[in-house]
Amino acid sequence: MGMTIAEKIIAAAAGVNEVKPGDIHTVELDRLMSNDGTTHLTIDMYNKLKNPHIADVNKLVWIVDHNVPCDSVKTAASHKKMRDFAKEHGIKFYEGAGVCHQVMMENHVTSGELIFGADSHTCAYGAVGAFGTGVGCTDYLYAMVTGKSWLLVPETLRFNLKGKLKDGVYARDLILTIIGKIGANGANYMAMEFGGEGLKTLNMSDRISICNLCVEAGAKTALMEVDDITIDYLKEHGRKPKHSFSSDADAKFAKVYDINLDEIEPIVAKPHFVDSVVPAKECLGTHIDEAFLGSCNNGRIEDLRVGAELIKGKKVAPLVRFLVVPASAAVYEQALKEGIIDTFMESGAIVMNPNCSVCWGSCQGVIGENEVLISTGTRNFKGRAGHKDSFIYLASAATVTASAIKGEITTADLL
Protein backbone atom coordinates (compact mmCIF):
# COMPACT_ATOMS: atom_id res chain seq x y z
CA MET A 1 0.00 0.00 0.00
CA GLY A 2 1.32 3.43 -0.95
CA MET A 3 1.76 6.21 1.59
CA THR A 4 0.96 9.91 1.74
CA ILE A 5 3.56 12.58 2.53
CA ALA A 6 2.44 12.71 6.18
CA GLU A 7 2.67 8.92 6.49
CA LYS A 8 6.15 8.85 4.95
CA ILE A 9 7.47 11.49 7.36
CA ILE A 10 6.04 9.65 10.35
CA ALA A 11 7.43 6.33 9.11
CA ALA A 12 10.89 7.85 8.73
CA ALA A 13 10.70 9.44 12.20
CA ALA A 14 9.50 6.14 13.70
CA GLY A 15 12.18 4.08 11.91
CA VAL A 16 9.66 1.79 10.22
CA ASN A 17 8.94 0.97 6.60
CA GLU A 18 5.22 1.61 6.59
CA VAL A 19 2.50 3.27 8.64
CA LYS A 20 -1.23 3.65 8.12
CA PRO A 21 -3.92 5.96 9.53
CA GLY A 22 -4.90 5.00 13.04
CA ASP A 23 -1.50 3.55 13.95
CA ILE A 24 0.28 5.02 16.96
CA HIS A 25 4.05 5.34 16.69
CA THR A 26 6.87 6.60 18.85
CA VAL A 27 8.76 9.16 16.78
CA GLU A 28 12.08 10.97 16.93
CA LEU A 29 11.59 14.72 16.61
CA ASP A 30 13.81 16.92 14.44
CA ARG A 31 13.02 20.24 16.06
CA LEU A 32 11.07 21.78 18.94
CA MET A 33 9.84 25.38 18.89
CA SER A 34 8.30 27.29 21.78
CA ASN A 35 7.28 30.92 22.23
CA ASP A 36 6.45 33.23 25.10
CA GLY A 37 2.80 32.20 25.06
CA THR A 38 3.46 29.09 27.16
CA THR A 39 7.21 28.58 27.64
CA HIS A 40 7.09 29.88 31.22
CA LEU A 41 4.66 27.05 32.03
CA THR A 42 6.99 24.49 30.46
CA ILE A 43 9.88 25.82 32.56
CA ASP A 44 7.83 25.57 35.75
CA MET A 45 7.01 21.94 34.99
CA TYR A 46 10.60 21.17 34.01
CA ASN A 47 11.86 22.48 37.33
CA LYS A 48 9.54 20.06 39.19
CA LEU A 49 10.97 16.97 37.48
CA LYS A 50 13.00 14.55 39.60
CA ASN A 51 15.78 14.37 37.03
CA PRO A 52 15.42 17.38 34.75
CA HIS A 53 17.49 17.26 31.57
CA ILE A 54 17.25 18.18 27.89
CA ALA A 55 17.64 15.35 25.39
CA ASP A 56 19.22 17.48 22.66
CA VAL A 57 19.48 21.22 23.18
CA ASN A 58 20.35 21.69 19.49
CA LYS A 59 16.78 20.75 18.56
CA LEU A 60 15.27 23.55 20.66
CA VAL A 61 14.35 27.00 19.37
CA TRP A 62 12.69 29.52 21.68
CA ILE A 63 11.17 32.73 20.36
CA VAL A 64 9.69 35.76 22.13
CA ASP A 65 6.99 37.10 19.80
CA HIS A 66 3.55 37.30 21.42
CA ASN A 67 4.02 40.29 23.73
CA VAL A 68 6.89 42.33 22.30
CA PRO A 69 7.84 44.67 23.88
CA CYS A 70 6.49 43.63 27.29
CA ASP A 71 3.04 44.97 28.07
CA SER A 72 3.14 44.44 31.85
CA VAL A 73 5.29 43.55 34.84
CA LYS A 74 3.80 40.05 34.70
CA THR A 75 4.90 39.61 31.08
CA ALA A 76 8.34 40.98 31.89
CA ALA A 77 8.75 38.29 34.55
CA SER A 78 7.63 35.61 32.10
CA HIS A 79 10.11 36.80 29.49
CA LYS A 80 12.91 36.97 32.01
CA LYS A 81 12.24 33.39 33.09
CA MET A 82 12.40 32.27 29.48
CA ARG A 83 15.50 34.34 28.72
CA ASP A 84 17.40 33.14 31.79
CA PHE A 85 16.55 29.48 31.20
CA ALA A 86 17.61 29.68 27.55
CA LYS A 87 20.91 31.26 28.52
CA GLU A 88 21.57 28.69 31.26
CA HIS A 89 20.93 25.73 28.98
CA GLY A 90 22.29 27.09 25.69
CA ILE A 91 18.95 27.09 23.88
CA LYS A 92 18.72 28.95 20.56
CA PHE A 93 16.84 32.10 21.51
CA TYR A 94 15.26 34.90 19.50
CA GLU A 95 13.80 38.14 20.81
CA GLY A 96 12.74 40.95 18.51
CA ALA A 97 13.33 38.78 15.43
CA GLY A 98 9.67 38.44 14.58
CA VAL A 99 6.76 36.00 14.72
CA CYS A 100 7.86 32.48 15.63
CA HIS A 101 6.72 30.72 12.45
CA GLN A 102 8.28 33.27 10.14
CA VAL A 103 11.53 33.11 12.11
CA MET A 104 11.48 29.31 11.92
CA MET A 105 10.84 29.30 8.19
CA GLU A 106 13.62 31.81 7.55
CA ASN A 107 16.20 30.06 9.72
CA HIS A 108 15.46 26.44 10.59
CA VAL A 109 12.73 24.35 8.94
CA THR A 110 13.51 22.01 6.07
CA SER A 111 11.64 19.40 4.02
CA GLY A 112 10.88 16.02 5.56
CA GLU A 113 11.34 17.11 9.18
CA LEU A 114 8.94 16.29 12.00
CA ILE A 115 8.53 19.34 14.22
CA PHE A 116 6.56 20.06 17.37
CA GLY A 117 5.74 23.67 18.13
CA ALA A 118 4.03 25.01 21.24
CA ASP A 119 1.75 27.04 18.98
CA SER A 120 -1.22 25.91 16.91
CA HIS A 121 -0.03 27.44 13.63
CA THR A 122 3.10 25.26 13.48
CA CYS A 123 1.42 23.57 10.51
CA ALA A 124 2.81 26.51 8.48
CA TYR A 125 6.02 24.48 8.07
CA GLY A 126 4.25 22.23 5.59
CA ALA A 127 4.95 24.92 3.00
CA VAL A 128 8.39 23.32 2.55
CA GLY A 129 7.13 19.77 3.06
CA ALA A 130 7.80 19.49 6.81
CA PHE A 131 5.34 17.88 9.22
CA GLY A 132 4.76 20.67 11.72
CA THR A 133 2.12 20.35 14.40
CA GLY A 134 1.12 22.30 17.48
CA VAL A 135 1.26 20.75 20.95
CA GLY A 136 0.55 21.83 24.50
CA CYS A 137 3.32 22.51 26.97
CA THR A 138 3.02 19.06 28.63
CA ASP A 139 3.67 17.25 25.34
CA TYR A 140 6.36 19.79 24.56
CA LEU A 141 8.09 19.12 27.88
CA TYR A 142 8.07 15.35 27.30
CA ALA A 143 9.60 15.81 23.86
CA MET A 144 12.14 18.30 25.22
CA VAL A 145 13.28 15.82 27.89
CA THR A 146 13.23 12.64 25.77
CA GLY A 147 13.65 13.88 22.20
CA LYS A 148 10.69 11.69 21.29
CA SER A 149 6.92 11.65 21.37
CA TRP A 150 4.05 9.61 20.00
CA LEU A 151 1.79 10.31 17.06
CA LEU A 152 -1.48 8.88 15.89
CA VAL A 153 -1.08 8.64 12.12
CA PRO A 154 -3.68 10.99 10.59
CA GLU A 155 -5.80 10.43 7.53
CA THR A 156 -5.04 12.81 4.67
CA LEU A 157 -7.25 15.14 2.67
CA ARG A 158 -5.76 15.80 -0.76
CA PHE A 159 -6.26 19.13 -2.54
CA ASN A 160 -5.40 19.10 -6.23
CA LEU A 161 -4.80 22.66 -7.34
CA LYS A 162 -5.47 23.58 -10.96
CA GLY A 163 -5.13 26.80 -12.93
CA LYS A 164 -3.87 30.09 -11.53
CA LEU A 165 -5.24 32.76 -9.20
CA LYS A 166 -6.57 35.82 -11.01
CA ASP A 167 -5.01 39.24 -10.56
CA GLY A 168 -6.22 40.75 -7.30
CA VAL A 169 -6.88 37.34 -5.74
CA TYR A 170 -4.44 35.89 -3.23
CA ALA A 171 -3.49 32.70 -1.41
CA ARG A 172 -5.31 34.07 1.63
CA ASP A 173 -8.54 34.09 -0.40
CA LEU A 174 -7.83 30.51 -1.47
CA ILE A 175 -7.36 29.03 1.99
CA LEU A 176 -10.34 30.93 3.42
CA THR A 177 -12.42 29.55 0.55
CA ILE A 178 -11.24 26.02 1.34
CA ILE A 179 -11.99 26.43 5.05
CA GLY A 180 -15.44 27.72 4.17
CA LYS A 181 -15.94 24.72 1.90
CA ILE A 182 -14.94 21.98 4.35
CA GLY A 183 -15.80 23.79 7.60
CA ALA A 184 -13.88 24.61 10.77
CA ASN A 185 -14.01 20.92 11.75
CA GLY A 186 -13.64 19.56 8.24
CA ALA A 187 -10.08 18.34 8.71
CA ASN A 188 -10.08 17.44 12.41
CA TYR A 189 -6.88 15.49 13.18
CA MET A 190 -6.18 15.08 9.47
CA ALA A 191 -3.32 16.14 7.26
CA MET A 192 -4.21 18.57 4.49
CA GLU A 193 -1.99 17.84 1.50
CA PHE A 194 -1.64 20.19 -1.50
CA GLY A 195 -0.30 19.40 -4.94
CA GLY A 196 -1.10 19.55 -8.62
CA GLU A 197 -0.07 21.83 -11.46
CA GLY A 198 -1.62 24.85 -9.75
CA LEU A 199 0.82 24.56 -6.87
CA LYS A 200 3.62 25.64 -9.20
CA THR A 201 1.94 29.04 -9.62
CA LEU A 202 2.18 29.74 -5.87
CA ASN A 203 5.33 31.24 -4.36
CA MET A 204 6.66 30.32 -0.92
CA SER A 205 4.84 33.19 0.78
CA ASP A 206 1.58 31.90 -0.71
CA ARG A 207 2.34 28.38 0.48
CA ILE A 208 3.11 29.48 4.02
CA SER A 209 -0.15 31.44 4.13
CA ILE A 210 -2.13 28.39 3.02
CA CYS A 211 -0.50 25.85 5.35
CA ASN A 212 -0.56 28.27 8.29
CA LEU A 213 -4.36 28.50 8.30
CA CYS A 214 -5.06 24.77 7.88
CA VAL A 215 -5.33 24.38 11.65
CA GLU A 216 -8.42 26.60 11.39
CA ALA A 217 -10.08 23.65 9.65
CA GLY A 218 -8.92 21.41 12.50
CA ALA A 219 -5.96 19.93 10.66
CA LYS A 220 -3.21 18.12 12.53
CA THR A 221 -0.75 19.31 9.91
CA ALA A 222 -0.54 20.67 6.37
CA LEU A 223 1.89 19.52 3.69
CA MET A 224 2.86 20.56 0.19
CA GLU A 225 4.73 18.61 -2.42
CA VAL A 226 8.41 19.50 -2.62
CA ASP A 227 9.26 21.08 -5.97
CA ASP A 228 11.77 23.49 -7.51
CA ILE A 229 10.21 26.43 -5.66
CA THR A 230 10.77 24.60 -2.38
CA ILE A 231 14.35 23.68 -3.22
CA ASP A 232 15.17 27.22 -4.37
CA TYR A 233 13.74 28.67 -1.13
CA LEU A 234 15.76 26.29 1.02
CA LYS A 235 18.92 26.94 -0.98
CA GLU A 236 18.41 30.70 -0.63
CA HIS A 237 18.26 30.19 3.14
CA GLY A 238 21.27 27.87 3.29
CA ARG A 239 19.44 24.58 3.79
CA LYS A 240 18.92 21.26 2.03
CA PRO A 241 15.95 18.89 2.33
CA LYS A 242 16.11 16.07 4.84
CA HIS A 243 13.61 14.19 2.68
CA SER A 244 11.71 15.26 -0.44
CA PHE A 245 8.58 13.19 -0.13
CA SER A 246 5.56 13.05 -2.39
CA SER A 247 2.56 10.78 -2.07
CA ASP A 248 2.60 7.46 -3.86
CA ALA A 249 0.27 6.96 -6.81
CA ASP A 250 -1.66 4.35 -4.81
CA ALA A 251 -1.74 6.34 -1.56
CA LYS A 252 -5.12 6.32 0.13
CA PHE A 253 -6.78 9.65 0.87
CA ALA A 254 -9.83 10.21 3.07
CA LYS A 255 -11.14 12.57 0.40
CA VAL A 256 -9.81 14.35 -2.69
CA TYR A 257 -10.77 17.89 -3.63
CA ASP A 258 -10.13 19.47 -7.02
CA ILE A 259 -9.69 23.22 -6.64
CA ASN A 260 -9.74 25.51 -9.67
CA LEU A 261 -7.62 28.51 -8.68
CA ASP A 262 -9.04 30.69 -11.42
CA GLU A 263 -12.49 30.42 -9.78
CA ILE A 264 -11.37 31.88 -6.45
CA GLU A 265 -12.63 35.38 -5.60
CA PRO A 266 -11.68 37.89 -2.86
CA ILE A 267 -13.05 36.49 0.39
CA VAL A 268 -13.96 37.80 3.83
CA ALA A 269 -14.48 35.64 6.93
CA LYS A 270 -17.18 37.30 9.02
CA PRO A 271 -17.34 37.39 12.82
CA HIS A 272 -17.08 35.21 14.82
CA PHE A 273 -15.98 32.08 12.92
CA VAL A 274 -13.19 31.57 10.43
CA ASP A 275 -15.40 29.35 8.26
CA SER A 276 -18.11 32.02 8.04
CA VAL A 277 -16.79 33.05 4.63
CA VAL A 278 -18.52 35.11 1.98
CA PRO A 279 -17.39 36.93 -1.15
CA ALA A 280 -15.82 40.20 -0.01
CA LYS A 281 -18.35 42.18 -2.02
CA GLU A 282 -21.11 40.95 0.33
CA CYS A 283 -19.47 42.96 3.12
CA LEU A 284 -19.04 46.20 1.17
CA GLY A 285 -19.78 49.30 3.23
CA THR A 286 -19.25 47.68 6.64
CA HIS A 287 -17.75 50.36 8.90
CA ILE A 288 -14.32 49.62 10.37
CA ASP A 289 -12.41 51.18 13.26
CA GLU A 290 -9.10 49.43 12.70
CA ALA A 291 -7.20 47.51 10.03
CA PHE A 292 -4.28 45.15 10.57
CA LEU A 293 -1.71 44.02 8.02
CA GLY A 294 0.68 41.50 9.55
CA SER A 295 0.87 38.14 11.43
CA CYS A 296 2.49 34.81 10.62
CA ASN A 297 -0.16 34.42 7.94
CA ASN A 298 0.21 37.65 5.96
CA GLY A 299 3.12 39.74 7.23
CA ARG A 300 5.76 38.82 4.66
CA ILE A 301 7.37 41.19 2.19
CA GLU A 302 5.00 40.08 -0.58
CA ASP A 303 2.01 41.13 1.56
CA LEU A 304 3.57 44.47 2.46
CA ARG A 305 4.27 45.13 -1.22
CA VAL A 306 0.60 44.54 -2.05
CA GLY A 307 -0.50 46.98 0.66
CA ALA A 308 2.11 49.61 -0.18
CA GLU A 309 1.23 49.59 -3.87
CA LEU A 310 -2.43 50.21 -3.04
CA ILE A 311 -1.90 52.94 -0.46
CA LYS A 312 0.91 54.85 -2.18
CA GLY A 313 -0.20 58.46 -2.62
CA LYS A 314 -3.35 57.87 -0.56
CA LYS A 315 -4.27 58.31 3.10
CA VAL A 316 -5.74 56.11 5.79
CA ALA A 317 -9.37 57.09 6.39
CA PRO A 318 -10.00 59.57 9.22
CA LEU A 319 -10.42 57.96 12.67
CA VAL A 320 -9.25 54.57 11.36
CA ARG A 321 -6.13 52.99 12.84
CA PHE A 322 -4.12 51.03 10.27
CA LEU A 323 -1.41 48.92 11.92
CA VAL A 324 1.27 47.47 9.68
CA VAL A 325 3.44 44.83 11.35
CA PRO A 326 6.18 43.01 9.40
CA ALA A 327 6.37 39.31 10.31
CA SER A 328 10.12 39.41 10.97
CA ALA A 329 13.08 41.72 11.29
CA ALA A 330 14.29 40.45 7.91
CA VAL A 331 10.98 41.45 6.33
CA TYR A 332 11.15 44.84 8.06
CA GLU A 333 14.67 45.45 6.74
CA GLN A 334 13.63 44.52 3.20
CA ALA A 335 10.61 46.81 3.44
CA LEU A 336 12.90 49.64 4.54
CA LYS A 337 15.19 49.07 1.55
CA GLU A 338 12.25 49.15 -0.85
CA GLY A 339 10.73 52.32 0.64
CA ILE A 340 7.65 50.41 1.75
CA ILE A 341 7.87 51.62 5.34
CA ASP A 342 8.05 55.22 4.11
CA THR A 343 4.97 54.65 1.97
CA PHE A 344 2.94 53.35 4.91
CA MET A 345 4.13 56.10 7.24
CA GLU A 346 3.28 58.80 4.69
CA SER A 347 -0.23 57.36 4.41
CA GLY A 348 -0.87 57.70 8.12
CA ALA A 349 -0.45 54.02 8.96
CA ILE A 350 1.17 52.98 12.23
CA VAL A 351 4.18 50.75 11.54
CA MET A 352 5.05 48.46 14.45
CA ASN A 353 7.97 46.25 15.40
CA PRO A 354 7.87 42.61 14.19
CA ASN A 355 5.64 40.58 16.53
CA CYS A 356 2.22 38.91 16.78
CA SER A 357 0.57 42.26 17.55
CA VAL A 358 -3.15 42.59 16.79
CA CYS A 359 -3.54 38.96 15.77
CA TRP A 360 -2.81 37.97 19.35
CA GLY A 361 -4.81 40.90 20.68
CA SER A 362 -2.80 41.36 23.83
CA CYS A 363 -0.21 44.10 23.51
CA GLN A 364 -0.87 46.19 20.40
CA GLY A 365 -3.95 47.50 18.65
CA VAL A 366 -6.44 46.00 21.10
CA ILE A 367 -9.97 46.92 20.05
CA GLY A 368 -12.74 48.10 22.34
CA GLU A 369 -16.42 47.34 22.80
CA ASN A 370 -18.41 47.29 19.54
CA GLU A 371 -15.32 48.18 17.51
CA VAL A 372 -14.69 46.52 14.14
CA LEU A 373 -11.35 45.22 12.93
CA ILE A 374 -10.47 43.94 9.48
CA SER A 375 -7.39 41.79 9.74
CA THR A 376 -4.89 39.54 8.01
CA GLY A 377 -4.54 37.70 11.33
CA THR A 378 -5.35 34.06 11.85
CA ARG A 379 -8.54 34.07 13.92
CA ASN A 380 -11.73 36.05 14.43
CA PHE A 381 -13.49 34.48 17.40
CA LYS A 382 -15.00 36.63 20.13
CA GLY A 383 -12.42 38.52 22.14
CA ARG A 384 -9.47 37.46 19.98
CA ALA A 385 -8.33 41.05 19.41
CA GLY A 386 -9.73 42.72 22.50
CA HIS A 387 -13.19 43.24 23.94
CA LYS A 388 -15.55 40.26 23.90
CA ASP A 389 -18.14 42.43 22.18
CA SER A 390 -15.94 43.51 19.29
CA PHE A 391 -15.98 42.21 15.71
CA ILE A 392 -13.20 40.81 13.52
CA TYR A 393 -13.34 40.29 9.76
CA LEU A 394 -10.52 38.32 8.12
CA ALA A 395 -9.35 39.17 4.61
CA SER A 396 -6.32 39.46 2.33
CA ALA A 397 -3.66 42.15 2.48
CA ALA A 398 -5.30 43.87 -0.50
CA THR A 399 -8.79 43.92 1.00
CA VAL A 400 -7.49 45.04 4.40
CA THR A 401 -5.47 47.90 2.91
CA ALA A 402 -8.29 49.00 0.62
CA SER A 403 -10.65 49.03 3.61
CA ALA A 404 -8.19 51.08 5.67
CA ILE A 405 -8.16 53.69 2.92
CA LYS A 406 -11.94 53.86 2.55
CA GLY A 407 -12.88 53.45 6.22
CA GLU A 408 -15.23 50.61 5.41
CA ILE A 409 -14.86 47.13 3.96
CA THR A 410 -14.11 47.32 0.27
CA THR A 411 -11.98 45.56 -2.33
CA ALA A 412 -8.92 46.86 -4.12
CA ASP A 413 -10.65 47.03 -7.49
CA LEU A 414 -13.24 49.46 -6.08
CA LEU A 415 -10.74 52.07 -4.83
From TrEMBL:
Cofactor: [4Fe-4S] cluster
Superkingdom of origin: Bacteria
Recorded GO MF terms: 3-isopropylmalate dehydratase activity; 4 iron, 4 sulfur cluster binding; metal ion binding
Keywords: 4Fe-4S, Amino-acid biosynthesis, Branched-chain amino acid biosynthesis, Iron, Iron-sulfur, Leucine biosynthesis, Lyase, Metal-binding
Alphabetical list of InterPro entries matching this protein: Acnase/IPM_dHydase_lsu_aba_1/3, Acoase/IPM_deHydtase_lsu_aba, Aconitase_4Fe-4S_dom, HAcnase/IPMdehydase_lsu_prok, Homoacnase/IPMdehydase_lsu, IPM_dehydratase_rel_enz
Pfam families for the chain: Aconitase (PF00330)
EC main group: lyase
EC number: 4.2.1.33
Keyword Lyase attributed: yes
Domain (Aconitase/3-isopropylmalate dehydratase large subunit alpha/beta/alpha): residue spans on this chain: 17-407
GO biological processes: L-leucine biosynthetic process
UniProt name for this protein: 3-isopropylmalate dehydratase large subunit
Species per Swiss-Prot/TrEMBL record: Butyribacter intestini
